[in-house]
Structures are given as C-alpha cells and as structure tokens.
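User: Quick sanity check before I run a bigger batch. Here is a single chain. Can you write out its predicted 3D structure?
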Amino acid sequence: MIGVGNRYRGDDAAGPVVAESLLEEFGAESVATCDGDPGALIDLWSGRREVVLIDAMISGGSAGTIQRFDVSENPLPAEDFPVSTHAFGLAGSIELARGMSTLPASVVIYGIEAEQFERGAAMSPRVRASVWEVSRKLARRLRAAPPRERSHV
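Assistant: Done. Predicted structure follows.
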C-alpha cells in the first residue's frame, strides 16, 4: 500500500493519512508514503507483483466519494488525478512505469474525491471520513493476506 500526496495541502493528505494509519500494524514492508515523485513511486513498487495506491482525486464528484481503479491493463483517467498536486502526476507515473515494463502485474488505485488543496489546511470532514473508510477496508485486506504476501499488497 502506498499513500500518495502531501500532508500539508488539505485533502491531498488523504493518501498519506491512510498509509500512516496502517503503518504501525503492518510495518514498512507493507505500507509506504510518497509525495508522487515518479522515481520514488517506481522504486517503492519495484519487484512487487501487486500494489495498491491511495490518492486524492478531482473528478467533479462529491467530496469524499471513493473510486477504485484497476490500472493493471488500462490507463488511469489522467483528468481525475491532476498534475498540479504532484510534479508529474500519478497517471503519468503509472504510464511511465508501464512503458519501462516496471509496472507491477496488479495495480489498484483508491481515489478519494478531494474538496480543497490549500497549503496548511486540514482535510475536509467528508474526505477525512472517507480516509477512515478506506483505511478500514485496506486493513481487512492486509489481515486476510498470508504474511508472506503482505509485502506484495
């Protein structure tokens, strides 16, 4: 699990907060955070066959809406994950890795619809509620995985 985003830009903190909520129970072998840098993302999923990413998104939906994308075979809708919050953008990072044949076989993204990305702002209440929902869902998934497979989730 990799939480993508910036903890200091309002709802962009969604991914890192999900990851940090899982870190103590499951450890750094299973959970990480990343600011969205393509090289760092590619390094984090290097050698893994499965990865789950969590990030804030903007699709025009209601704040806090959770969407699940399986990008193992198809591109991520780039317009939902804007370039402005991460230098290169999550969609660009995934397609770069796909082009370099370094994308894991299974890549699932949980996108949480954001309301605001203001520097220094706290997460909006609806996004925070969705963060805890995604955290609980992913914790159940990690607990159900055999210990040897947790590092690949």
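The chain has one domain: 2-65+84-144.

User: Great, the batch can go ahead then.
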